[in-house]
Amino acid sequence: MTNPLVGCRICDNNSLAPVLSLGNLPLANGLLTADQLAAPEPRFPLDVVLCPNCSLVQITETVPPELLFSNYPYFSSFSDTMLSHSRSLAEVLIRERELAGKSLVVELASNDGYLLQYFKQAGIPVLGIEPAANIARVAEAKGIPTLNEFFDDRLAERLCQQGKQADVIIANNVLAHVARLHEFVEGVQLLLKSDGLAVFESAYVRETVDRGEFDQIYHEHLCYYSLTALTHLFARHRLQVVDAEEVTIHGGSIRVFVQHAGQGRPQARLAKILEREREWGVDTLASYAQFAKNMAAKRDALLKLLHELKAANKRIAAYGASAKGAIMLNAFGIGPELVEYVVDRSPHKQGLYMPGVHLPIYSPEYLLTDKPDYALMLAWNFKNEVMEQMNAYRQVGGKFIIPIPTLEIV
Ligand SMILES: [Zn+2]
Question: Which CATH number does the domain housing residue 355 bear?
Answer without folding.
Answer: 3.40.50.720
